[in-house]
Amino acid sequence: MRRFWAALLGAALVAGCGSREPERVDPADHDAVFLWAGVPSSAVPKRARTVYLLAGEVRADDPGRLVSLRPGTPKGSGMSLWYTVRVERLDWEEGVYARVLADLARWREAGNAIEGLQIDFDAETRGLADYARFLEGLRRRLPRDYDLSITGLMDWSAQGHPAALARLAGTVDEVVIQTYQGRKTIPGYEAYMASLAQLPLPYRVGLVENGEWRPPAGLARDPEFRGYVVFLLTRPQAR
How many folded domains does the chain comprise? Predict the structure, then answer.
């Protein structure tokens, strides 16, 4: 609780300081990026060491099929890769689990350094308990040498039930907190970021390329903070 109030005070001080203007997020300044299916690999900055690749989707109209968005096998020389699935429903049929595990094995057999599986699901804060149950079932199927990552909303830590958050902490290895909507940073993110002190698991902060960002006071000192992930847009950045 002491960590929460210290962070909240720091966010208030930063938000009230008019002398520091937000900067634009440049992927070239970061070593972890998220690559949507339509974004060319040429957009990945040279210093990137971790890449989250959107590989497929489980769509609302079909719980029995993984829609492939990246049919080829990536070549992540010199970097770690995450296999990301965009999810619209949680009642997967067993064939979807089998396909995901087979793809992970195929990517690794091709010589890639695979960190693990990431689930991108817009779980409402009030639905975190149901989401935690799904993730527990997924974790049981996932080989232990793969980590499990999820994307998350900023208000999870502020409004999420402590018991549901604790279940997440016992299941996933990290959460990437999304601070943007569409192509813009969500206004007032400083107050949300302060509440991350209540999140009981390691997290990264997801930024949108070219979005405004001013690091909240104390963020870099939070022991659970693991750095940033820049979500790339469709236009490759100039070198």
Answer: 1
